[in-house]
Amino acid sequence: MNAQLHHANTSPTAVICENLEYFGGRPNRGEPDPRAVWDEAEALAGLDTILDAFVDEVAPDGTQLADERESLLWGFVNTLHMQMTRLDRAVDKLAPKLRELQQSQDGSEIGAWELERVIERAQHLGDRRDAFERLRDCAAQRYLSDTGNTWRPRYGSHTSRTAQLTSAAIDARDFLRARENEKTQAHLPHGTLVAVAGSKPVSDADRIYAALDNVRTKYPDMVLVHGGGPGAEKIAARWAESKGVHQVVCKPDWNAHGRAAPFRRNDELLRLLPKGVIGFPGSGISENLLDKATQLGIPVFRVPLAA
Known about the structure:
Blueprint lengths: L1 H7 L3 H12 L16 H19 L10 H35 L5 H39 L24 H16 L4 E6 L7 H14 L3 E5 L5 H12 L3 E3 L4 H4 L3 H11 L4 E4 L4 H12 L4 E3 L5
Parallel strand pairs: 1-2, 1-4, 2-3, 4-5
C-alpha cells in the first residue's frame, strides 16, 4: 500500500530511474552499451571462493566425494571454456553481416550508424569472450595445483589469446583480418616444433625435465608437440605448462579411424614436420612414430629412463 502511494506521488521518469537504480538496466538490441564488460578483480575473487568451496566443502578430504573432486573441477573449467566457445561462435556469425554492411556503404548516416553498431556488438562479444577465457585460465591453473594434472578439453584446442591481443576501436576490415590472424596464431603457434613420444609409466620425471630443458636451451622458441598420452607425454605436458611453452596436441580420432587411430595420429603429427623427436620408453605405437620419423629424416633422440 505504501509503495502504491509512493509511486502515485512520483513522476514516471523518477519511477524509471528508481527501478534502474534498484534492478539495473540494459540497452535494447542495436543501442550503444555503455556498461563495463566485468569487474575483473571481483570476478576472480569470486571464482576463487567457488573453487575453494568445491575443494573444502563439497568434496573435502576424508569423504568419498573427494574421489570425484578432479572430475568436478574439470567440469567447472569446461563450463567456462564452453561459454567462451559460444561467444567465439557468436562473433563469427557477425562476420558476414560486417562484410555486407561494409560493401553496401553509400555515405549515408544511417548506413554508417548500422555498421558502427555491428562492429561495436562484435567487439563487445569479443571482450566478453576474453573475460571468460581469463576466468577459464585461472580455473585451469587451480585445477593444475589441486590435482597435479593439466586441464584439457575433450575436443578442440586449449588456447589463450588474451595475453597477446588488446581491445581496440578498429574498422570492419581490420576487425575481420585480426580475427583470422588470431585464430591462425592460436592453433599453430610460431616457433620450433619439437615432438615427444613415450607412453610407459614413469617414475623418473627429472630426466624428462632435464631433456626438455636442454632442448629448450638450444631452441628458446620451442613448441612442444605430443599425442596427449600418459607416461612421459603427460609429464612433458606438465613441463610445458610450468615453463609457458606452447603445445600442439595430436590426439587419436577413434571415431574416424577406429583401431588405426593411434597410427593415423602418428602420421598427422609427423606432417607438422617437427625439428626432432625425443623418444622416451613407450609402447609399439610410440616406436611406430619414432621409426616413421627416422624414415622421413627427422632426427630422433632416445632418452632411457629408470623403470
